[in-house]
Each structure stands twice: as structure tokens, then as C-alpha cells.
Amino acid sequence: MSSAALPSSLSDRLSYWRLVALLAAATLAMAVLSLAVGYARLDLFAALGDWLAGRQSLPALVLVELRLPRAILGALVGFSLGLAGAAMQGLLRNPLAEPGIVGISSAAAFGAVTMFYSGFAGAFALALPLGGIAGALLAVLLLFALNGRGAGTMTLILAGVAINSFAGAMTSLALNLAPNPYAALEIVFWLMGSLADRSLIHVWLVLPLMLVGWALLLSCAPALDGLTLGEDTARSLGFDLTWLRMRLIGGAALAVGSAVAVTGAIGFVGLVVPHLLRPLVGHKPGRLLLVSGFGGAILLLAADTALRLMPIRPELKLGVVTALIGAPFLFSLIQRLRREA
Amino acid sequence: MRRAALALGLWLAMAGGLVLADDVSAKPQRIVSLNMCTDELVLRLASPKHIASVTWLSQDPRNANMAARALTIPANHGLVEEVLAHKPDLVIAGAYTTRATVALLKRVGVAVREFGVPGNLAEMRQQIRDMANLLGEQQNGEELIAGIDARLAALAARPRPAQPRAIVLRPNGFTTGRGSLVDEILTAAGLANLAAKLGIDNYGQIALETVALGKADILILNTTPDGPPSLAHEILHHPVLARLGDRLKLVALPSKLWTCAGPAVIDAIELLLDAAAPTSAGKRP
């Protein structure tokens, strides 16, 4: 819908970009907070000074090799999950379309697990994110094939339950067959997710793939806005809906698949964040994309910082914390959908 | 439920034609071991023809020290039915593993003996002696202990540096502190265990940050060479550890040398003594 003629358009657009800037600044602040919180006492400024001066001091090493990857991955994975959630909800026009709930994350975990425990990822590092992306892609394709255009809540959830339980069972099977005594314990990582002891290698491994996924998803914004008027109107406005679906499917698979491959499946981020931010962007699905990305990054960084501050060791898995925050949202959403039905 | 389990056990016992042995004869003829560490002692002390079964874990040369001999003996997975099929006259189990199996075996009257985890070298000697008595192989036991003591004495005579600080990093980010056999192995190798100083008892998780900032001289990485891929071991390949290699000494110590209390721990002490030797530690300040 072309809204250029409306007088409120300029101030509207201005307030949108102000919101984006605000969320981006908050993401940066959360990332800095995440850097400052850790298990050992670290003089952040001294460490930063050493690093900038190129001195390989111990504090600089801890900052760059341990805390930085954790903060960066938290932001990247949160952004991917929030963005993918908002985009899928826009396309399927259903607030329950979230990578975790509809099974994309668990399918990605299965793909990554297959690559990791078969030893492929050891020989060829990129196999890990590619496995995750392949798993995610299969799940998204299956989901869209089952739902067709405009998903009813019933089909969406049933498809999600089916994909989730099947991928979860296959993950367990793969780990049971893995010839390694820790495999049974590691299923918790793949199903709940964690940022603990990830390295910069993981960041470089997934960053390019994620960026491509983000670009694909963000390019869907105008078409998603058009789609709110119905498919026929959107088509008459010149949006190619098949091309839109392909971009969205590919983008979601790239973003979620590579995220899950390095941190495991972290649920609820793509559900909670778009739900909270939707009123702030005037319920426009196109505008929800970028703000949901930043919102997801903030939520994940906050959850990861909180679990390190909690006096629970070994630390909680990230998915446990996001589930504690997200499950009540899911219940309230179900309640609302019931009332509307 | 309990009664059903008992009935099942009794039925299995009868079906297996089991001799309900209350006392263990001088030299058990059909020994079944249900724990990787008791496996090792049984394999070292008893004659292979008296061993009916050991665990499948002991057949993997990456994890177990006696894998070559274990491969000639049928394996079990700690399941009651497997054990009863061997008609054992002695079942040896670990105090913390296969609890359900041990409980059921005791109910149907199988002679089961449980062995704990030695916390130091003295307890290790005692455990070898107990095992040798149980198996009726007293002479083998005394020979094994004498061999250990002779090697320990030889190692004690070697020159050693002034207590370099060491920390152990195991899969999943665990370390070993006070009151463990590993702590005593470090002490015997002339090392000061940093984890014990940090207040970690026995076995606890440690953050990589703490390891990096801990000012250790030696970092002992508890690896399994050529092991299958696992997240647990990924932490031992974290790039920060390679970067730390510039300022401290990284020592790779295969887990199987000290997973179980046996003669292999002397190999661990020797490996650590070699690593800490002043001549080879050029990088250490």
C-alpha cells in the first residue's frame, strides 16, 4: 500500500526509524553488559586497552577469545530468531508461527547433529551450519507444503507438533548411535541451546550465512505489508508472491539453520519478541522485521547475562531461560486465539 | 511393582539354572564384571579362562587399558539377563554404576561384590589387595602392588622442579580438586593442583575464564586421542587454550591413564614428571 500521500507518513516513518535506532542502541548496550559479566574477575578497560595496543595479555585473551564470541553469537542468534519469527508470522498471518514451535529449530538441530557426530564437521567445518540449514530448509518446505497459503492455527500447530516430535526423536536416535559416552548428555545442548564456551571460529562460520539469510528476510518487508490486504490485492500491487515465499523460506532456513548449528535450538525468542513489538510498529508486518531482529538480540543477550549471574552451576541452558520467559506468552496467545475463534 | 520384579528375577534365576551361591569359593570360575574399572583389575589379576564377561566399554582401546585381553572375552552392557546367561559364581560391580542390575542380582541370590572409587594411592593398593583376595589370586595381587611401588620409588628419586602450578581440564569443562586420586597423582608428580587451591572438592566444573586467568604453569588437557566427535571434548580444542600455549605448558594426558585406579596411574605420574621437567619447559617463566 502506497502511503506516501498521507500527511502522517513522514512523522510515522521518523518514529519508526527512531524505534529502530533505540533498539539498536539497546542491543549494543546489552552486548557490552554481556562482555562485562563473566565467571572470573576481569578489568574490562585494561583488557580492552591491552587488546587495542596489540598486547597479548591474559585479560585481553579472555575478552577476545571467550567473552566476545559469546556476546556476538548471542546478538547474531537472537537477531536471526527474532527476524525469522516476525517474517514467518507475516507470511502465514499467524502469531504462532515461530521457528521453535513449528519445528524448524529442532529440524535444524537434527541436521547439525548428523553432521557433527558423523565426524563430517570435524573434516569440513562448514558442514555443521550447512547441515543445520538443510534441516531447517526441509522443515520450512514441509511446513509450507502442509499449510498452503494463509495457515489456519490448527494445521500450523499440528504440523509443528509433527515436525518437532519427529526431529526430536531423530536427534535422540542419532545421539544414541553416536559412539561417544557423552552423547546422551549432549542432547540437552541441542534441544535447549547454550552460548557457553563458543569461540570466534563459530562466529566466522555462521556470520556470512546469517547475513545472506537476514538480507533475504528483510527484502520481504514491502511484500509482507502488501500481503496484509489479501493475496489478490498484493498481487495487483505488483508483488510476486511465489518469489516472496521462496525468499522467505530460504532466508528463514539460512538464519535459523546456521544459528541452531552453533548454539542448539533456543525456543520462544521468535514468539515473544514480535508479539511485544507489534503494537509499536502499528501492526505492520514489514516494519516488524528489523525491530524484531534487534528485539531478539536484546532478549537473548539479557537471558544469557542473567543465567551467568544466577548462582546455579553448571549454568542453565539458554533455552530453559527463554522458555521461562516465553511459555507464559504462549499461554496468553492461545487464550486470545481461543477468544477470537 | 517390587514383587513383580522379584518374581521376574526368581524366574530368570530358575530359567538360567543358576546355582544360588551364598559363599564364594576360593577361586571363582565364572566371573562377570559390570564396571570398566573393576574390569581392568579382574583382567589384570584373574586368568582369562575364569572371566565369563566384562563390559563393552573395556573393549575400546581408546578408553580402556586392557582392551586387547577384553576383546577375547564376551562383553556385557550391565543388563541382568546378560549377566544371568553367563551363570556367574561371582559378579563384581562398581559402587555407583548399574545400580538396578546389582539390586536385582542380589535379590535372586547371586554373589555380588561392589568396589568403590579409591581417593588416593593407599586406597588403590588396598583395592587391588581386596580384589586379589576375592579372586583367590593373592600372589598376582602382591606382584602387581610390588611393581607399582617399585616404579613409584624410582619416580620419587627423580629431580623435580619447585612445585609448578597445574590445573586439569577434562571434557565438559570439569576439573579435579582436593580429595581425589588425580590430586594425589599431581602431588606425586611434584605439581601443585590449582583447582584444589581454588576450593574445588573432588570433581567440579570450572569456567574457561578461570582457567585462563588462573596463572597456572601447566595445563593438563584430559583428552581421548582419536575419540569420536563430541561437544564434551570441544572445550579442550577451544582456541583460547592454543593461545594460552604461548605462556604456559599444555600437556595432553589420555583419560584412560587415570580414569581407573590401577598401574596406569603410574604412567600418568611419569608423563607429568616428564612434562614438568625443567629441561623440557623452556617456555615456562
* Share in β-strands of chain B: 15-25%
Uncertain residue ranges of chain A: 1-6
Question: Radius of gyration of chain B, rounded?
Answer: 21 Å
Structure class of chain A: mainly alpha
Q: Please write the string of helix (H) and strand (E) elements of chain A.
A: HHHHHHHHHHHHHHH
**Global mean pLDDT of chain A:** 90
For the terminal residues of chain A, how far apart are their CA atoms? 28 Å
Please state roughly what percent of the residues of chain A sit in beta strands, choosing from under 5%, 5-15%, 15-25%, 25-35%, 35-45% or over 45%.
under 5%
Task: Give the number of helices of chain B.
Answer: 13
- Binned, the helix content of chain B reads 40-55%
Could you give a short account of the major beta sheet of chain A?
none
Radius of gyration of chain A: 20 Å
Describe the structure in brief.
The complex is a heterodimer of chains A (341) and B (285). Chain A is an all-alpha fold and 341 residues long.
Structural commentary:
- The complex is a heterodimer of chains A (341) and B (285).
- With 341 residues, chain A is an all-alpha fold.
- Chain A has 15 helices and no strands.
- By secondary structure, chain B is an alpha/beta fold.
- Chain B is 41% helix and 15% strand.
- Chain B is built from 13 helices and eleven strands.
- Chain B has a five-stranded parallel sheet, with helices on both faces.
- In chain B, strand 1, helix 2 (36-45) and strand 2 form a beta-alpha-beta unit.
- In chain B, helix 6 (121-135) runs antiparallel to helix 7 and helix 7 packs parallel to helix 13 (264-276).
- Chain B is globular and about 55 Å long.
- Classes of the chains: A mainly alpha (341), B alpha/beta (285).
- Chain A binds chain B through residues 38-42, 56, 58-59, 61-62, 65-67, 116-117, 119, 121-122, 178-183, 185-186, 189, 196-197, 199-201, 313-314, and chain B through 57, 63, 171-173, 205, 207-210, 212-213, 215, 227-235, 238-240, 243-244, 246-247.
